[in-house]
Amino acid sequence: MTDSIKFWAVVPAAGVGKRMNADRPKQYLELAGKTVIEHTLLRLLKADVFAAVVVAISEEDPYWPELEVSTHEKIITAAGGKERADSVLSALKSMRDLASDNDWVLVHDAARPCITATDIQHLIASLVNDEVGGILALSSHDTLKNVQGDSIVGTLDRRHIWRALTPQMFRYDLLKNALEAAEGNPAITDEASALELQGLQPKIVEGRPDNIKITRPEDLELAQFYMEHQHD
Ligand code: CTP
Ligand code: MG
User: Fold this and answer.
1) Are 61 and 68 in contact, with CB atoms under 8 Å apart?
2) What is the rounded CA–CA span in Å between residue 56 and residue 110?
3) Whose CA is nearest to atom 8 of ligand 1?
4) Which ligand is nearest to the CA of 12?
5) pTM score, two decimals?
6) 190 lines ligand 1 (CB under 6 A)
7) Fewest Cβ atoms closer than 10 Å to its Cβ: which of 118, 125, 149, 212?
8) 104-107 vs 162-171, strand pairing mode
9) SS3 call for 39
10) How far is the CA of 80 from the centre of ligand 1 (A)?
């Protein structure tokens, strides 16, 4: 019954943005006239594929209720957790009565506001018939060095190295079970790593380089530049 399979977006947005070093969590900094998280959510909503967008928000967050998008009919709020993986698992648990085991969940960082509909559609079209799912990723153009201290001890074969982006797209039950099994494991920095721990091999789908994560102060200007030059 593939006809009844739904797509859900899960957006972890409960981080404090330590590396950004700003007066508020980075998802609430302004970028081209809106906060970072508003760009992210409005772009996900505009893609028009999701039954709902579940956003994990910290309980001490005074900024979220101030945003108009927080009351959008397709936005559901869940409690954030200690680490990113805890926030994602909390969101998945909150959807228990809404999502079916085989539904697809696309987890996307609130801090990636330049996500495009083309990237979302490309990810879905590439994986919709896959058993496990997979992630958007970027191949590495630079030569990659293995370093100890400040000395190079080897060169990596970059054909095998990809940078993991989001969205990361997995079946609801597979993802929830994998994150539950990995709870508290600090090595789980994205969804794919939780599935890898289960012995599964998620696919990679080449993403666009403009889908950057706002991490450090200079990334805001870069995101603004990309937004001004995006046409979809
Ligand atoms: N995130 C979350 N819950 C946490 C930690 C992070 O939902 N406990 C979210 C962030 O809000 C962000 C995404 O996960 O949208 C990616 O994480 P990251 O870029 O590391 O954001 P922060 O943890 O906020 O930043 P930093 O690591 O610099 O503190
Ligand atoms: Mg973090």
Assistant:
1) no
2) 9
3) 83
4) 1
5) 0.97
6) no
7) 149
8) antiparallel
9) helix
10) 10
Residue 136 Cα to ligand 2 middle (Å): 19
- The verdict on the CB of residue 11 being under 6 Å from ligand 1 is no
- Does the beta carbon of 19 lie inside 6 Å of ligand 1? yes
Beta bridge mates, 224:
none
Taking the C-alpha atoms of residue 220 and residue 193, their distance in angstroms, rounded to an integer, is 27
* Span 7-42, pLDDT tens digits: 999 999 999 999 999 999 999 999 999 999 999 999
84 CB under 6 A from ligand 1?
A: yes
pLDDT band at 232, cuts 50/70/90? confident
Q: Which amino acid is at 51?
A: A
Domain ranges of the chain: 7-229
Residue 18 Cβ inside 6 Å of ligand 1? The answer reads yes
Asked, as a colleague might, if the bond just before 167 is cis with ω within 30 of 0, I would say yes
CATH classification number, 7-229, choose in 3.90.550.10, 3.30.420.10, 3.40.1280.10, 3.30.70.420 = 3.90.550.10
CA-atom Rg of the chain in angstroms: 17
The 10 Å CB-count burial string (b at 16+, else e) for 131-154 is: ebbbbbbeeeeeeeeeeeeeeeee
